[in-house]
């Protein structure tokens, strides 16, 4: 009886969470089209061994249509391929672009990306810091759209992203899952409680970043250059934030090509799950993860030890139902309805991937580039 009660509570918690997310996503606004002012903007792009993507990313940034003052600072983070050469050659003929280098003998850090970002932030000249990953392609209106959301006390703007790639199973899974993560971001910001964030399309005021001590106490963590930083910044008085659902703000990011790479990426993302300063949030994540573990383990218990199949079927049916509702709203709001074709496959694959990735992340069993 106790087991049934625990399973029921976990199922109800999961359902309630995604119903709340669905409400938040419905309430999310696209924002005003007319900017309050033309902010000055510094875009910071950390790159490590990105010779495959660097030129394409630089050209997409160079095509931006923002009429205010802006710059792009490329941070070469100890690359051992041709990344540095590509950056220097591009910057030599494009005056808005500059390159800074992290020394090759820089000391080991759990999260070298934070050091690369902060190196760029110290070199930045302007009011708004925008971050983007090296494998991302922003639309030409990205800077304009993101900068235009800073009005009143808004000091943090999160933008959406989507995956590129083929219709194959690995890429299709990531496309739909990225839609889900993006929608969770939007829902949290809309409800006034940002839970997750993404440095692939994030902007905040430069003064705010240094006011909270930069990455400071987050440097020792494997990730956290996005959500943990946002959590830290919103604790400051009178700091407003918003989500930018404008189609001109959607950054396209390259997916990983194998399940091994996907598992490594998810492990890296989950590596700080026990390090959040908000203990209620950590407990909440733990309960949700426990729900996934149960969905992973229960079919084996039913198959091998004659446990009731209903102990798996009913919680799984609840998950599928609320996921379908949430992702349908997500697909409509973000114009990605075709991605829903991958929903059945994603529902099955997500359970083992998350179940395995979390302990790999906690025990640091993943690799940085």
From TrEMBL:
Specify the domain of life of the species encoding this protein: Bacteria
Domain Glycosyltransferase 2-like, chain residue ranges per copy: 42-180
> Which residue positions does the secretion signal occupy?
none
The record's section on Pfam families has: Glycos_transf_2
- What keywords were assigned to this record? Glycosyltransferase, Membrane, Transferase, Transmembrane, Transmembrane helix
Keyword set includes Glycosyltransferase: yes
Is Transmembrane helix tagged as a keyword?
A: yes
Q: What is this protein called?
A: Cellulose synthase/poly-beta-1,6-N-acetylglucosamine synthase-like glycosyltransferase
């Amino acid at each position: 009886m106790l087991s049934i009660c625990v399973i029921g509570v976990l199922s109800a918690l999961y359902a309630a969470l995604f119903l709340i997310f669905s409400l938040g996503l419905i309430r999310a606004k696209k924002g005003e089209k007319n900017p309050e002012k033309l902010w000055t903007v510094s875009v910071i792009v950390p790159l490590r061994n990105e010779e495959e993507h660097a030129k394409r990313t630089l050209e997409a940034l160079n095509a931006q249509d923002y009429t205010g003052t802006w710059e792009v600072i490329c941070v070469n983070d100890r690359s051992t391929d041709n990344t540095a050469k590509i950056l220097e050659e591009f910057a030599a003929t494009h005056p808005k672009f500059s390159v800074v280098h992290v020394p090759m003998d820089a000391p080991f850090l759990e999260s070298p990306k934070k050091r690369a970002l902060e190196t760029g932030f110290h070199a930045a000249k302007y009011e708004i810091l925008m971050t983007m990953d090296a494998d991302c392609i922003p639309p030409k209106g990205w800077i304009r759209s993101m900068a235009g959301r800073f009005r009143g006390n808004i000091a943090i703007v999160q933008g959406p992203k989507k995956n590129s790639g083929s219709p194959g199973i690995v890429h299709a899974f990531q496309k739909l899952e990225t839609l889900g993560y993006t929608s969770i971001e939007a829902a949290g910001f809309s409800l006034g409680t940002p839970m997750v964030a993404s440095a692939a399309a994030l902007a905040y005021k430069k003064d705010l970043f240094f006011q909270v001590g930069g990455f400071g106490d987050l440097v020792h963590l494997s990730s956290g250059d996005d959500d943990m930083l946002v959590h830290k910044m919103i604790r400051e008085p009178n700091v407003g934030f918003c989500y930018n659902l404008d189609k001109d703000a959607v950054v396209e990011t390259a997916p990983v090509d194998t399940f091994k790479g996907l598992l490594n990426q998810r492990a890296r993302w989950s590596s700080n799950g026990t390090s959040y300063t908000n203990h209620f949030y950590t407990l909440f994540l733990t309960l949700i993860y426990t729900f996934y573990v149960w969905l992973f383990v229960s079919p084996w218990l039913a198959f091998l030890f004659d446990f009731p199949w209903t102990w798996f079927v009913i919680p799984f049916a609840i998950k599928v139902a609320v996921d379908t509702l949430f992702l349908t709203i997500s697909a409509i709001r973000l114009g990605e309805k075709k991605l829903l074709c991958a929903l059945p496959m994603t529902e099955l694959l997500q359970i083992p991937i998350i179940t395995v990735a979390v302990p790999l992340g906690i025990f640091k069993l993943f690799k940085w580039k």
